[in-house]
Design goal:
Elements lengths: L2 H8 L13 E6 L3 H5 L1 H8 L4 E6 L4 H6 L6 E7 L2 E7 L2 E6 L3 H6 L5 E4 L20 H7 L7 H10 L5 E5 L6 H16 L7 E2 L3 E4 L7 H11 L7 E3 L4 E5 L15 E3 L3 H21 L6 H20 L11 H12 L8 H5 L2 H18 L5 H16 L8 H9 L4 H9 L2 H4 L7 H16 L5
Parallel strand pairs: 1-2, 1-6, 2-5, 3-10, 6-7, 7-8, 11-12
Antiparallel strand pairs: 3-4, 9-11
Bound molecules: D-mannonic acid (CS2).
């Protein structure tokens, strides 16, 4: 970033008018902390002048934080050896969701990227298909000005002619193809025609980004000498694997360390099942701990066995990739004591996360005639969480709570939850092996007799 923009930040974040965005080639939907600590940093490091217009789909806080700072913010990296901070200038504009369709239609925009979290897609997590019974999707389909991400995206695409790449950066299986399917299904149902050329490459994104705390704001101020209201905090590690299939060019993200490849699937499966699967296991089995680093200290062995015995055998390892070293590095990353990543942050939205993190592992192991003992332990811990969490933060909280209210004994809880097909599909409740493992684990977790 040039010195002049950095000085703008020092000048603070006062009330200078925002410069007219001249080089916005990327519109990003969902400009939360993850995007700012990940794709925006790669875009900055690519150094070839692409700017980002960030659009928040939910809270307007980020507009209040970054608007007066000309889009500038700092990334605070916390490693075991200490912290460092840098200012990022790739974000040129920050807008609220109602601007989405207009900006997606803008011919100067060549990439529309997304981090809207799993539930932001309003899809059925087990099948990846659009939930047409979702109340907001239903309303969008009545022809109102769309308010869902998919509705807004489809509306914007239908208004453009120039080619564009839609780049999904959320933790979903086959995220590019899944997003294409959702947009096409929506467009068909809404009677909207999309005629521009589009590409939907898949990506694997990885960087742990806990919610920013007051202590992080203070630490960044100490390091930078300026108060930044938009600090994001993260670990030193970062990884981005992108399918190299773009309709209208891209930044030189490879120059910034991203891996551009023909096939993202092996990386994606590895990351979803090993990192995210272990994360969810730690969050539910370790819900008595506030932070992941504390949970992994006690539950590291169980996580390791999940990786070695259940997830590992289901993976195709990319050529030249060292799986043992990857698994070990995950445990080291989770144990980073400086990161203060809350287990509760990961426990959110379990219904949307379980299928691609744990249930694919379960299916593959069952098909191979094996018992997915550790994956089942993680799923049973989620069931216990559904039963006992004071407030269940999940888009399916209503049906899940209603289901467990009809059951008391562990075997009954397992049966009512396995019947939630949005999560388990129609097939998993048919597996005697899986059901028995769940009942065994949930019985132990309920009686307090579990080693975990
Ligand atoms: C986490 C992820 O909150 C969660 O569910 O598992 O956000 C995780 O930290 C990232 O995917 C790491 O790349």
């Amino acid at each position: 970033m040039n010195t002049e923009r950095k000085d703008t930040m020092r000048l603070s974040l006062t009330s200078r008018p925002r410069p007219v965005p001249s080089s916005v080639g990327i519109v990003h939907l969902g400009i939360g902390a993850f995007h700012r600590a990940h794709q925006a940093v790669y875009t900055e490091d690519a150094g070839d002048g692409w700017g980002i217009c960030g659009i928040t789909q939910r809270s307007a806080t980020v507009v209040e934080q970054l608007g007066p700072q000309d889009g500038l913010y700092s990334v605070l990296e916390r490693g075991p050896e200490g912290a460092s901070a840098r200012i990022i200038g790739a974000v040129r504009e920050v807008l609220t969701g109602d601007a989405t369709a207009g900006r997606v239609a803008d011919p100067a925009v060549r990439i529309v990227s997304l981090t809207v979290t799993e539930k932001g897609y309003r899809h059925d997590p087990a099948t990846g298909r659009l939930r047409i019974d979702d109340p907001e999707i239903r309303l969008d389909l009545t022809g109102r000005e769309p308010r869902t991400v998919i509705g807004r995206l489809a509306r914007g695409l239908s208004r453009r002619e120039a080619p564009v790449t839609i780049l999904c950066c959320d933790n979903l299986s086959a995220n590019g193809a899944t997003l294409r399917g959702l947009v096409e299904e929506y467009a068909e149902r809404a009677g909207v025609k999309i005629t521009c050329e589009t590409a939907f490459p898949s990506t694997m994104v990885d960087r742990i980004v806990p919610a920013t705390t007051a202590a992080d704001l203070d630490e960044a101020e100490r390091l930078l000498g300026v108060r930044d209201h938009g600090v994001v905090v993260t670990e030193p590690f970062t990884q981005w694997v992108i399918e190299d299939s773009f309709a209208a060019g891209r930044p030189a993200w490879d120059e910034a360390g991203a891996i551009l490849t023909g096939d993202v699937a092996p990386y994606e499966l590895m990351k979803l099942r090993l990192l995210n699967g272990s994360h969810s296991m730690l969050a539910y089995l370790g819900s008595r701990f506030t932070y992941v680093a504390e949970a992994v200290d006690v539950l590291g062995d169980a996580v390791r066995r999940y990786m070695d015995e259940d997830a590992g055998p289901t993976l195709t390892v990319p050529d030249g990739f060292d799986l043992e070293e990857y698994k070990a590095s995950l445990l080291t990353r989770f144990a980073n004591p400086a990161l203060r990543h809350r287990t509760a942050q990961i426990a959110m939205d379990g219904s949307q996360k379980l299928p691609q993190r744990l249930l694919g592992v379960v299916r593959d192991r069952l098909a191979a005639g094996a018992e997915p003992r550790w994956a089942a332990l993680a799923v049973a811990a989620w069931m216990r969480h559904v039963q006992t969490a004071g407030e269940l933060d999940d888009p399916l909280a209503g049906p899940l709570r209603e289901a467990v209210s009809r059951a008391d004994r562990p075997d009954a809880v397992v049966d009512v939850l396995l019947a939630v097909t949005e999560v388990f599909g129609p097939d998993l409740r048919e597996s005697r092996v899986f059901r028995d493992l769940l009942v065994e684990h949930l019985t132990e977790l309920t009686s307090g007799g579990s080693r975990y």
